[in-house]
């Protein structure tokens, strides 16, 4: 963790700890929030999160730890997207649903009192988060395994450790200095990758057949390949959503495969040299 991130993290922990220790006036019992106490997300950060995830009218946004609902409310109001938020604070959920009704968007934006670990991610095309590092790490497996390939995940400030973000941006947010001690925000974007680990039989149309074994660590892929009884070198492998790319070097010939991975099948085109391409297919063994 570099100095800026360390300062942001330390500042946030001090502020959040203070919130936990001091209930608001007139509030008899503080809701236990394992992802961190409720801290409003500045509107400028909300807007940038939605732009960063390229949210459009056809998207379904799921906000885990939705607080006052500002992310889903903004997506539904300004972009005409749909979605829902989950939070364990019943008062905040009631407030968010009331605001959706007031704006006339209750048919597209809804909020539920629910543990984030029980949230249904099957409809999500975009997932948003503003949760402390420990909760991010606890949610990492759920998001990776339950969200559909291609789903965009955007987190405000905190990340998934060694599941490195596909993209990251940092920008000035002066009003955050009172919260974290740092007047900036960092957004992390992940594209849920298809699960491609395992053995595959690859057939090039009218040409070679290979057996490849892929090892996957989130969007990073490595492996080996065999063709015609000889080992072929597999390099530059990666997966982004359902898009997969890898290069095979077979007897001095370099072949770059690009295509789509869906469940137990893959297909695409391969550069066979001389400006020519051929179709290829693959089945999981």
Q: Can you characterise this structure?
A:
This protein has 285 residues and is of the alpha+beta class. The chain starts with a helix and ends with a strand. Mean pLDDT is 88; it is low at 1-31. The chain is built from six helices and 15 strands. The chain has helices at 3-21, 43-52, 70-79, 90-103, 133-146, 177-180, and strands at 60-64, 82-87, 109-113, 126-129, 152-156, 167-172, 184-191, 198-204, 209-217, 220-227, 230-240, 243-250, 253-262, 265-273, 276-284. Strand 14 and strand 15 (276-284) form a beta hairpin. It has an eight-stranded antiparallel beta barrel. It has two domains: 3-191, 3-Layer(aba) Sandwich (Rossmann fold), CATH 3.40.50; 198-284, Lipocalin.
Features:
single chain; 285 residues; alpha+beta; Rossmann fold; Lipocalin; 2 domains; eight-stranded antiparallel barrel; 6 helices; disordered N terminus
């Amino acid at each position: 963790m570099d100095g800026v991130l360390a300062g942001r993290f330390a500042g946030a922990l001090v502020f959040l700890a203070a919130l936990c220790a001091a209930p608001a006036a007139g509030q008899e019992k503080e809701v236990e929030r394992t992802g961190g106490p409720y801290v409003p997300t500045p509107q400028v950060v909300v807007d940038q999160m939605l732009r960063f995830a390229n949210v459009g009218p056809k998207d379904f946004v799921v906000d885990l730890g939705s607080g006052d609902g500002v992310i889903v409310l903004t997506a539904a109001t300004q972009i005409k997207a749909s979605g829902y938020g989950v939070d364990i604070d019943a008062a905040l959920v009631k407030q968010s649903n009331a605001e959706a009704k007031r704006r006339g968007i209750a048919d597209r934006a809804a909020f539920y009192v629910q543990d984030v670990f029980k949230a249904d991610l099957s409809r999500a095309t975009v997932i948003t988060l503003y949760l402390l590092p420990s909760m991010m790490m606890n949610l990492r497996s759920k998001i990776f395994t339950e969200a559909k390939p291609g789903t965009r995940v955007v987190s405000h400030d905190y990340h998934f450790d060694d599941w490195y973000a596909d993209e990251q941006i940092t920008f000035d947010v002066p009003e955050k200095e009172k919260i974290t001690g740092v007047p900036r925000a960092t957004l992390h974007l992940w594209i849920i990758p298809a699960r491609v680990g395992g053995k595959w039989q690859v057939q090039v149309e009218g040409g070679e057949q290979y057996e490849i074994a892929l090892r996957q660590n989130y969007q990073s892929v490595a492996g080996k390949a065999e063709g015609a009884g000889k080992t072929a070198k597999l390099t530059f492998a990666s997966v982004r959503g359902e898009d997969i790319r890898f290069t095979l070097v077979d007897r001095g010939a370099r072949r770059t495969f690009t295509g789509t991975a869906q469940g137990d099948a893959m297909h695409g085109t391969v550069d066979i040299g001389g400006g020519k391409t051929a179709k290829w297919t693959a089945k999981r063994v």
